[in-house]
Amino acid sequence: MRGLYYSLNQFLKERFGERVQKVPLDAGFTCPNRDGSKGRGGCLYCNAYGSGTGAFREGLSIREQMLRGMEHMARRYGARKFLAYFQAFSNTYGPLEVLRARYEEALVDERVVGFCVGTRPDCVDEAVAGVLAEFKNRDLMVWVELGLQSVHNETLARINRGHTFEDFVKALEVLKARGLLVCVHIIFGLPGEWHLEMLETVKTLARLPIDGIKFHELYVVRGSGMERLYREGRYQPLTQGEYADLVAEAIAHLPPKVVIQRLTGDPRPEELVAPDWARDKAGTRRLIEETMLNRGLYQGKYLE
Ligand code: SF4
C-alpha cells in the first residue's frame, strides 16, 4: 500500500521483489564548473569535495569501493541486491571510453542490478546517453541524477551553476528518448528565493517527464562561497519547520508516479557550518511526515 509518498525503497521493492541498497562511489571524476572549462569556483554552496569522499584519489578502486560498500550494507541491512551510485562530482564528464570502463567496473557481480550517475545537465548529450543506454539495454537499471536546484535562471546565475533551466530540459529530453530513468536534485533555501519561487520549481517539474526527485535544504559548508555570505550576515538558512512545510507542500504537487528519492540533505558533520538542524535527518523526515499528516497532504493531492 502506498504511504504519504512514493519512496525509493518501495519503487525498488516493486521492481526487484526485495530491498536494494545504493552503494555511494567516488569514481575519480571532476566537474566542469571547477576545472576551468565552465568555471573555477564551483557552485556557491559546494566546496572542493564536490560531495565526494576522495576514496578514488586515495587509491581505492571502484571495484574495491563497491565490494566494501556491499559487504557493509549486507551486514547492516541484510541487502542482497545493490545499485552502484556514482555520486561525487559530474559522473558523465569525461571521454566516452572512460565512462564506459568506470560504469563497467562497478558491476562486480550479479548482485549489482544497475547504477545511478549524478551529473550536471550540461554534461549530458546524445553520445553520453548512448553509452548509458548500452547498460540499460543489458537489463540493468540506470538512473541519471541531474542537478538542477531551481528552474529560475536568475537563481542559477546567482549561485554560479554555469547552466540554465533550458540546458536541463534539453538533457531530460535526450535521456528520456533513450528510456533512461531521470531523478532531479533540487535545493530549497537558495539565496534570493522565497516560498513562491521554490514551489514554482516543483510545479514546473511536475509537468515534465521526470521519474524521481531529491529534495535538499541549503546548508552552508566550510570552504564554500555560501560560507562567506553567511559569515557576513548576508544569508539566513531556512528553519527546520519552514523546510518541512515546503517539502510537505511540494510533494502534494508531484504526480504519484514520481519516486521521492530523498527528503533532506546529508552534510558531513565536520564540514557543516549552518544550520545546525541539518545534522538531524531523522527529525526533519519525521517533521515532514507529521506536517503532511496534520495538513491532510499526500503525493499528487493538488493534481486531483
Ligand atoms: S555542486 Fe556539483 S556541479 Fe556544482 S561545483 Fe560542485 S561538483 Fe560541480
TrEMBL record:
Cofactors required: [4Fe-4S] cluster
Occurrences of domain Radical SAM core (ranges) = 15-257
Q: Does 4Fe-4S appear among the keywords?
A: yes
Q: Which domain of life is it from?
A: Bacteria
Extract the Gene3D superfamilies matched here: 3.30.750.200
Q: Keywords in alphabetical order, please.
A: 4Fe-4S, Iron, Iron-sulfur, Metal-binding, S-adenosyl-L-methionine
DNA damage found in the keyword field: no
Q: Name one GO molecular function term.
A: 4 iron, 4 sulfur cluster binding
Report the protein name in the record. Putative Fe-S oxidoreductase
Phylogenetic classification of the source organism: Bacteria, Pseudomonadati, Thermodesulfobacteriota, Thermodesulfobacteria, Thermodesulfobacteriales
